[in-house]
Each structure stands twice: as structure tokens, then as C-alpha cells.
Specification:
Blueprint (H helix, E strand, L loop, with lengths): L2 E3 L3 H10 L4 E3 L15 H27 L5 H30 L8 H6 L1 H32 L10 H24 L6 E2 L4 E2 L20 H37 L2 H36 L9 H24 L2 H39 L1
Helix pairs in contact: 2-3, 2-9, 3-5, 3-6, 3-9, 5-6, 5-7, 7-8, 8-9
Protein name: Partial
Keywords: G-protein coupled receptor, Leucine-rich repeat, Membrane, Receptor, Repeat, Transducer, Transmembrane, Transmembrane helix
GO biological process, one term: hormone-mediated signaling pathway
């Protein structure tokens, strides 16, 4: 009986396929197995759902923001940036699903070339740009709203040119954060033993490396996905809580029922924003920090899989609902569009029926 011990699970796939009955020992992969790039069917179905929701929702939100007349140009531009960055997450998921379908049944033959290839790096870079631009843009949106609601008379609002500058710096900065690990020739971002780069540590090219002795550039991941995103999430929570309190105090002092109703609607939207931030970004930061102090044992890599495939992309699917599709202005625009369509249809019907009506009246006059 042939026995072999190796560091790559794909080596065992080749051994077992070429030598039936042979025994091979290798560490199990976090996400893939010999046949499938994503070994759990539930995760594959969820990714399909997230692709449809993320791409469809953000494309629709982006189009609505571009075509509708909005007096608040700064907020509109921020939300357009948010929709585009979140749409990129859908592009990333679609690329991963396409590769999963292409290699279905014999993934082990493609694993090495996929992880070390340029396409995996491109999709990994897209995922990082999407998530980081989304976080920074959410902070800008919260700060702009904070100035309008809490500090309306104290501070100057964000101007259009300032907003453009902030977004340009954000997109260039986040692109640099994503591209550096893929382009810098350094052993810090590359494992010579496994011949894996920063984006090739897992089959889905998502660089969520947990702290460990043999983990590539885990400090970089901790700084980006842990510290930076955690600070952004904390700011969002504090800012929206202050906005809620300021709005509640103002509505209560006015003793106006209509204003209290507006406050209730605003409070529900703020609560939804805070809830999604807590559910999406705080757990990722906590997972990285707990792994750093060895307070969590993810020996089966189950937490890793769910955080990589579900938690990060799901925020991109929820944002268009929170910032565009659930706003009163959006539904007002929908009602106006429906009224215009109904008016055009009724006008066409009148124009079609008018010749027949005139002919009928002429016949009655003759008789």
C-alpha cells in the first residue's frame, strides 16, 4: 500500500486518482475539495443568490441615482460611489462562480494554476477594492448626514469639490491597498514552500487570513479588515446614534405629530443601518482579534468559510436597499413614474378612440 504525506490537498487527489487504494495525508482545504472549488452546496447556492441581489440591486440603485433629479448633489454622488463599489462585489462573486462551474468535477487539476494565476489576483483585488471603498463611502455618507442633522448651524457642510476630492483619494487609496500585495516582490506576501501568493491562500481568492504561524501577511489583513474597518464601523454606529438622539430631541420638543412621524421613519432607517454594520463588519474584526490572542479555535475552518463567502459580500447586497430602495424619495419617484405611465396610456387610448367617436357623431347628424 502506497502512503504519502504532503502539504497540499491536491497532491492527495492526484495520488488517489492515479493509485486507487493508496493512502495520502494532507491538511484539509478551507473551502475546496478534489471535485469542487466550493465544496459546500449551501454556500454555492448562497453565492448565486448574492450575485443576483448585489448586481441587480446596485445597478438599479445606480441608475435611479443617475437619472433622478436630486438637490443634494453631495449625498447623491456618495451613494453612486457606494452603489458602484458594491456592484464590484457582485462582479467578483460572478467570476468565482464561473470558475467553480468551469472546474466542476475535477477542480484538483486546476487548483494550482488558478491560485497562482493572474485571474485569481484580479478577482481578489476587486473584492478588496469593493469592500474598502464601501466602508469609506459609508463613513462619508454618515458624516455628511451628521453635519446636516446634529451640527446644522455649527459646521460648514461638505461641498461638491470636497466630496469629489474625498472619493478620488478613496478610490486611489483603496486600489493601492489591494494592488500592493499582488505586485510587490516580497516574501512577506508570498509563501515559497506552498508557492502561494496573498490572494492564492484559498480557492475564492478572498484575502481574509487569520493570524497564525504560517499565515501569509496576516498583519496586513488585520490592519485592513480588522483595525481600519472596525474603526469605520464604530464611527458609523456612534454617528447614527447621535443623529437618532438629536432627531428625537428635536421632534419631542416641537410636540408636532407630523414631525414625530418623520422621526419614527428616520429612526427605523438609522436602526437598520447600525444593525447591518454591527452584523457585517464588527464580527469580522472580532474574528481577527480573537484569533490574534488565540481566544478562538477554528480548527474546522467553518467560521472562515462563512465570513469569507457570506458576511463580507452580504453588506454589498443590503446597501442599495438601505440607501436607495427604502428611501421615501425613491418611492415618491416610483409613484410619479407610475402616474406618468398611466397618463400616457390613457392619453393614447383617447387618441385611438377619438376618430371612431367623431365618425359616430357624424353618422348621427346625418340621420
Amino acid at each position: 500500500m502506497l502512503f504519502r504525506k504532503t502539504d497540499r490537498f491536491t497532491d492527495c487527489c492526484f495520488v488517489e486518482n492515479l493509485k486507487p487504494g493508496a493512502t495520502c495525508e494532507a491538511p484539509a482545504d478551507k473551502i475546496a475539495n478534489c471535485e469542487r472549488m466550493i465544496k459546500f452546496a449551501e454556500l454555492r447556492y448562497l453565492m448565486w443568490f448574492l450575485v443576483v441581489l448585489t448586481v441587480g440591486g446596485n445597478v438599479f440603485a445606480l441608475l435611479m441615482r443617475l437619472v433622478k433629479d436630486d438637490t443634494n448633489r453631495v449625498q447623491n454622488m456618495f451613494i453612486c460611489s457606494l452603489s458602484f463599489s458594491d456592484m464590484l462585489m457582485g462582479v467578483y462573486l460572478a467570476g468565482i462562480i464561473n470558475q467553480e462551474i468551469t472546474t466542476r468535477g475535477e477542480y484538483y487539476k486546476h487548483d494550482f494554476y488558478w491560485r497562482t494565476g493572474s485571474l485569481c489576483k484580479v478577482f481578489g483585488i476587486i473584492s478588496v477594492i469593493s469592500s474598502e471603498v464601501s466602508v469609506f463611502t459609508l463613513v462619508f455618507i454618515a458624516y455628511d448626514r451628521f453635519l446636516h442633522i446634529v451640527r446644522a448651524l455649527e459646521f460648514k457642510k461638505i461641498g461638491y469639490r470636497t466630496a469629489v476630492f474625498l472619493l478620488v483619494v478613496t478610490w486611489f487609496g483603496c486600489t493601492a491597498i489591494a494592488v500592493i500585495p499582488a505586485t510587490v516582490d516580497s516574501t512577506y506576501f508570498y509563501d515559497e514552500t506552498l508557492r502561494q501568493g496573498f490572494y492564492g491562500t484559498n480557492a475564492i481568492c478572498m484575502p481574509l487570513q487569520l493570524p497564525g504561524e504560517n499565515t501569509i501577511a496576516w498583519e496586513y489583513c488585520l490592519a485592513v479588515f480588522g483595525a481600519m474597518n472596525f474603526i469605520g464601523a464604530m464611527y458609523l454606529i456612534v454617528a447614527y446614534c447621535q443623529m437618532f438622539y438629536s432627531s428625537y430631541t428635536s421632534a419631542k420638543n416641537s410636540k408636532n405629530s407630523a414631525r414625530l412621524g418623520v422621526h419614527t421613519t428616520m429612526a427605523k432607517r438609522f436602526a437598520a443601518v447600525v444593525f447591518t454594520d454591527v452584523c457585517c463588519w464588527v464580527p469580522i474584526a472580532m474574528l481577527l482579534l480573537l484569533s490574534l490572542v488565540r481566544a478562538i479555535n477554528d480548527s474546522g475552518n467553518e467560521l472562515y468559510m462563512w465570513f469569507s463567502i457570506c458576511v463580507i459580500p452580504i453588506n454589498s447586497a443590503i446597501n442599495p436597499i438601505l440607501y436607495t430602495l427604502s428611501t421615501p424619495l425613491f418611492w415618491q419617484k416610483v409613484k410619479e413614474t407610475i402616474k406618468k405611465l398611466l397618463f400616457c396610456i390613457s392619453k393614447d387610448n383617447v387618441a385611438t378612440d377619438k376618430p371612431e367617436l367623431i365618425g359616430k357623431m357624424n353618422r348621427e347628424k346625418k340621420t
